[in-house]
Design brief:
Order of helices and strands: HEEHEEHHHEHEEEHEHEHEEHHEEEEEEH
Helix content: 10-25%
Number of domains: 2
Radius of gyration: 20 Å
Structural class: alpha+beta
Shape: globular
Number of helices: 12
Length: 392
C-alpha cells in the first residue's frame, strides 16, 4: 500500500541511506479528544495480537489507557533534542500533550521502515482507538516484541508471531517476535518497539516530538516552533484530516486540474504495468513490482506530475469529491485498515464506466477491476500544483 520512509523520517532527519541504525526522538503534541474510553474487550483485537501468555510481565507493567490524544505535528532532529527545547514545546499555547519517543529508519523483516521506540504506558494514548485499547498489544511491546503496521503484515507478508530481524542495514540486528499488527496513524512509521529495545538496537534517544494543537492551524504552529527548536530540527503535520465529501457542487477547478493529454498519458502508463506483481513498497521495475501508491506515482510521473509516495499523502493532492462525480484520471481512495479507522490505506486509478486499474494486494498483480465502494472515501481530482507541494 505504501513505500515506507518517504516523507516523515527522511524529510526531517535527512537520512539518505542506513548503514548503521540512524535514530531520532519524537515528541507528540496531540489533539484532546476529551474521552477516556474503557479498554475494549480483548477479543475485539485479538486476531491482531500474538499470544501474550508467555510474557513474564505482570498486568500492571503497562498503565491502563488514559485520555487519548491524537498526534498532530511531528518534530525531529538528527540528534537528541535538548531538554530545554522539549519543555518549551510543552509550554506553547494550545499544546495538549507531549510524548517523547525514539525514531529511526531501520530494517525490519528485510524491509526498510520507520521505527519508533516508545514507552507503552504513555505512547498508547496517542494512537488510533483500536490500537490504544489493546492491553495485550502494549504488554507485548513492553515485553520485547515489535509491533508492525497492519499493511506491513497483510501486504508485506510479515507473519504475526514470527521472529524477524530488526536493526540497521549492514549493522547490528536482533531477532524480535512480531507481537502485533497495529497501525500507529503516522505516515511512514510501520514498526514500534519499547524504548529499552530501541536503545539496545543502538538508537539515540530524544531526537523527535509528536505534537497536537487543537486551536491553531498546523502551519502557523510549525512556523512558531522555529523560535524554540535547534536549527537542525524540522517539523511536519501528521496525517492532516481529509474532508470526506457529500454529493453536491464541485469546487471550481479554474484550470488547476490535469489536461486531457495528461489524463490520457497517466492511464496509458498505468496500463503498461498490467501483470506486474504486487510488491509492498514497490514503485519501479527495480523492486520487481508495485504496490497501490507506487503504481499511482509511476503513472502520474509519466505525465510530469509529482505525487508523494504513500496513499494517505496522495489523497491530499487535489480535491476529494464523491465517487458519483469521478471522471477518468481521478484516483479512488479507501480506508481499509481496521487498526486505524479513517486512515487512507489503498488507492487506485479510475478509468470510467465503473472500472479502475489497481495493485490490489499481496499475491495479486496489477489489473483492471470493477470499482467497489466498501470503505471507499471518495475520489481525488488531482491538482498538479498541489501535488508538487504535498510532502512525500
Amino acid at each position: 500500500m505504501r513505500k515506507p520512509n518517504r516523507r516523515v523520517l527522511p524529510t526531517i532527519i535527512g537520512v539518505s541511506a542506513v548503514t548503521t541504525l540512524a535514530a531520532n526522538i519524537a515528541v507528540v503534541v496531540a489533539f484532546d479528544h476529551g474521552d477516556a474510553p474503557a479498554p475494549a474487550p480483548q477479543s475485539q483485537g485479538r486476531r491482531f495480537v500474538a499470544a501474550s501468555g508467555s510474557s513474564a510481565l505482570s498486568p500492571a507493567a503497562v498503565a491502563p489507557l488514559g485520555r487519548r490524544l491524537a498526534p498532530h505535528v511531528l518534530i525531529a532532529a538528527p540528534g537528541t533534542l535538548p531538554a530545554a527545547a522539549v519543555e518549551k514545546v510543552r509550554k506553547l499555547k494550545g499544546v495538549q500533550g507531549v510524548e517523547v519517543v525514539d525514531a529511526a529508519q531501520a530494517m525490519v523483516a528485510g524491509k526498510r521502515v520507520g521505527l519508533l521506540g516508545v514507552d507503552p504506558s504513555t505512547f498508547r494514548n496517542y494512537t488510533p482507538k483500536p490500537t490504544a485499547q489493546a492491553d495485550d498489544l502494549w504488554r507485548n511491546i513492553a515485553g520485547g516484541d515489535v509491533a508492525v503496521s497492519f499493511m506491513m503484515g497483510s501486504d508485506g507478508g510479515v507473519q504475526l508471531g514470527s521472529q524477524v530481524p530488526v536493526g540497521g542495514k549492514g549493522g547490528r540486528q536482533t531477532q524480535l517476535r512480531v507481537g502485533a499488527y497495529a497501525t500507529m496513524g503516522i505516515s511512514d512509521v510501520d514498526a514500534v518497539v519499547s524504548r529499552g529495545n530501541a536503545q539496545a538496537l543502538g538508537m539515540p534517544t530524544g531526537n523527535a516530538l509528536l505534537v497536537s494543537v487543537p486551536k491553531t492551524k498546523p502551519a502557523a504552529f510549525i512556523k512558531g516552533l522555529r523560535k524554540v527548536l535547534p536549527k537542525q530540527a524540522r517539523a511536519v503535520e501528521v496525517n492532516p484530516q481529509i474532508d470526506v465529501p457529500s454529493v453536491g457542487k464541485l469546487p471550481q477547478a479554474n484550470g488547476r486540474v490535469m489536461t486531457a493529454p495528461q489524463v490520457q498519458t497517466v492511464i496509458k502508463a498505468a496500463y503498461t504495468r498490467l501483470g506486474w506483481p504486487y510488491v509492498w513498497g514497490g514503485e519501479s521495475e527495480a523492486e520487481g513490482g508495485y504496490d497501490c501508491s507506487g503504481l499511482m506515482q509511476y503513472a502520474f510521473a509519466r505525465a510530469g506530475i509529482k505525487l508523494p509516495r504513500v496513499a494517505a499523502d496522495q489523497a491530499r493532492t487535489g480535491w476529494v469529491i464523491p465517487y458519483a462525480k469521478a471522471q477518468p484520471g481521478d484516483m479512488l481512495i479507501w480506508a481499509n485498515d481496521p487498526t486505524a479507522p479513517g486512515y487512507i490505506s489503498h488507492i487506485a486509478l479510475y478509468l470510467g464506466g465503473g472500472k479502475m486499474i489497481a495493485a490490489p494486494r499481496r499475491g495479486t498483480v496489477v489489473q483492471v477491476q470493477n470499482v467497489y465502494t466498501r470503505n471507499m472515501k471518495g475520489a481525488v481530482r488531482v491538482n498538479p500544483g498541489q501535488a508538487a507541494r504535498t510532502p512525500g
